[in-house]
């Protein structure tokens, strides 16, 4: 498909052919794809999908102004920003940080490293918590607690610990070292903000955690460290239009969704390996993994039929995982679809020395660059997998900047929702996650969850 220079390009051709998706199978299922797209168009037109509205809501100067003002205010006062959150409350922000900040942002002197240092307290690992807290100057640190409900145990426990330490070390001003990002009206964190007079940013009530990167959950930490949030939203807005195109060949989200569902249902390709060839997109694979797994991994359809839907996301990084995972991908079970992300332009291509200035064994590098080598490895690995009958497709970005990442994020979100519609499941709920939480609450003695503790103890005793 012909595209403008700034637009992501998509190549699904290697997913079709002998032993892959047959043209007849594709044609047979186009009506289902068109129905899914019609539903998406209807629901977005009616304003029912909160995440779809985010690029327009925050892309407008007025919508983003509060986030920008808050980011500017905290930059003036603090050196460190610590995001306390887990899952959708942190993966998106960390993905943007990894993709768009300097590789060693937190290690650079302030005059080179941007407005603030940025850290994430996600897992409730006591060693990770203690070692970060021990190196921070708390008087120069803001803690951004992110949770829509406020009840997430991993986030709540770290908030309680930070709050206790701040009250002891900064008794007169501890409240000003917190910023809550939470539901605008309801939830434990919203109630706590009122009780303790803590400033807040809002997560729109119709936006779920794994779809929240383009609201203050991701935009605030990005803006605070100097990432161009407007460009991020502009890229997402253009991709949103592409993902409503009625022509499937021009709609990368619809193409991807139908391809993945057919590969799973008809061919047994029930895993998706996302493999960018760029360190900046390492955390994108983790963000995508949550989006895809929580949205599509469902026991039942929206109407209650048992389907056991979903494909398993696997994280890989080129060229590193050529030396760890590709042996399995080449010669192991043919049960995967491979998503390659190719970055055409790196900031520092880094040319090799002249032929005469290198050992003879490495002189084939002469006249080339590290960028060329990495791109050659990506091209070669994709071709080699194709030679083995593996299904691959490629997303090409002209460069990794805020605009391109905005496109990549929104494409993945739209493709996921359309895949959910094709499976017949609700791509916005996560009932399977809740049961484990209830058992954990029971083990920790939370009131109202005693029966869950009893069930575990009974089972363990045999």
Describe the structure.
With 462 residues, this protein is an alpha/beta fold. It has three domains: 9-44 and 232-423, Rossmann fold; 50-227, Rossmann fold; 432-461, no CATH class. The chain has 18 helices and ten strands. The chain has helices at 23-28, 30-45, 50-59, 61-77, 91-100, 110-113, 126-133, 153-169, 188-196, 216-224, 229-242, 252-267, 282-296, 326-331, 370-387, 402-423, 431-443, 450-461, and strands spanning 9-11, 80-84, 117-121, 141-146, 178-182, 200-202, 271-276, 312-315, 336-343, 391-397. The strands form two sheets. The protein has a five-stranded mixed beta sheet with strand order 1-10-9-7-8, with helices on both faces. A five-stranded parallel beta sheet has the order 3-2-4-5-6, with helices on both faces. Strand 5, helix 9 (188-196) and strand 6 (200-202) form a beta-alpha-beta unit. Helix 3 (50-59) packs across helix 4 (61-77) and helix 4 crosses helix 10. It is globular and about 65 Å long. The termini are far apart.
Short description:
The chain has 462 residues and is of the alpha/beta class. The protein contains 18 helices and ten strands.
Determine the strand fraction and express it as a percent band.
5-15%
Rg, rounded, reads 23 Å
Looking at this structure, what is the CATH superfamily of the largest domain? Answer: Glucose-6-phosphate isomerase like protein, domain 1
| Number of discrete helical segments | 18
CATH topology of the largest domain, anyone?
A: Rossmann fold
Shape: globular
How far the N terminus sits from the C terminus, by CA atoms, comes to 60 Å
The helix-strand sequence is: EHHHHEHHEHEHEHEHHHEHEHEHEHHH
Q: Could you name the ranges where pLDDT drops below 50 across 5 or more consecutive residues? A: none
Count up the domains. 3
Oligomer: single chain
Give the class-level CATH name of the largest domain. Alpha Beta
Range of helix content? 40-55%
Number of strands: 10
Largest sheet: 5 strands, mixed
Q: How are the strands ordered across the major sheet?
A: 1-10-9-7-8
In CATH, the architecture of the largest domain is: 3-Layer(aba) Sandwich
Overall pLDDT, averaged? Answer: 95
Alpha-beta classification: alpha/beta
């Amino acid at each position: 498909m012909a595209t403008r220079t700034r637009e992501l390009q998509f190549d699904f051709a290697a997913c079709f052919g002998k032993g892959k998706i047959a043209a007849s199978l594709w044609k047979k299922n186009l009506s289902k794809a068109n129905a899914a797209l019609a539903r998406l168009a209807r629901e977005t037109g009616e304003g029912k999908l909160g995440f779809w509205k985010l690029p327009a809501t925050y892309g407008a100067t007025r919508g983003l102004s509060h986030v920008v003002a808050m980011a500017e205010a905290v930059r003036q006062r603090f050196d460190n920003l610590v995001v306390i959150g887990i899952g959708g409350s942190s993966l998106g922000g960390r993905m943007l940080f990894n993709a768009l900040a300097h590789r060693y942002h937190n290690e650079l002197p302030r005059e080179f490293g941007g407005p603030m240092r940025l850290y994430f307290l996600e897992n409730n690992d006591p060693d990770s918590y203690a070692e970060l807290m021990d190196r921070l100057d708390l008087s120069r640190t803001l803690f951004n607690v992110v949770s829509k409900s406020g009840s997430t145990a991993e986030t709540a426990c770290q908030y309680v610990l930070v709050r206790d330490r701040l009250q002891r070390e900064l008794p007169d001003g501890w409240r000003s070292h917190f910023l809550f990002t939470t539901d605008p009206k309801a939830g434990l964190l919203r109630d706590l903000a009122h009780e303790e007079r803590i400033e807040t940013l809002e997560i729109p009530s119709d936006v779920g955690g794994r779809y929240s990167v383009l609201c203050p959950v991701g935009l605030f930490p990005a803006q605070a460290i100097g990432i161009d949030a407007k460009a991020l939203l502009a890229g997402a807005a253009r991709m949103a239009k592409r993902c409503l195109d009625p022509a499937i060949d021009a709609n990368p989200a619809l193409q991807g969704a139908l391809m993945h569902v057919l590969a799973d249902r008809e061919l047994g390709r029930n895993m998706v390996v996302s493999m960018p060839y760029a360190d900046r997109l390492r955390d994108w694979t983790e963000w995508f993994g949550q989006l895809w797994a929580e949205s599509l991994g469902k026991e039942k359809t929206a109407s209650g039929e048992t389907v056991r839907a979903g494909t398993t996301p696997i994280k890989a990084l080129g060229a590193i995982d050529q030396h760890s995972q590709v042996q399995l991908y080449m010669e192991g079970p043919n049960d995967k679809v491979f998503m390659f992300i190719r970055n055409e332009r790196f900031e520092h291509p880094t040319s090799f020395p002249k032929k005469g200035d290198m050992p003879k064994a490495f002189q084939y590098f002469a006249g080339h660059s590290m960028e060329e080598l990495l791109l050659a490895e990506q091209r070669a690995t994709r071709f080699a997998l194709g030679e083995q009958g593996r299904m691959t497709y490629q997303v090409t970005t002209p460069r990794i900047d805020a605009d391109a990442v905005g496109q990549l994020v929104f494409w993945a979100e739209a493709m996921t929702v359309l895949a959910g519609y094709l499976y017949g499941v609700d791509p916005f709920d996560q009932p399977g996650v809740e049961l484990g939480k209830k058992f954990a609450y029971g083990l920790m003695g939370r009131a109202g969850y005693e029966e869950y503790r009893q069930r575990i103890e009974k089972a363990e005793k045999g």
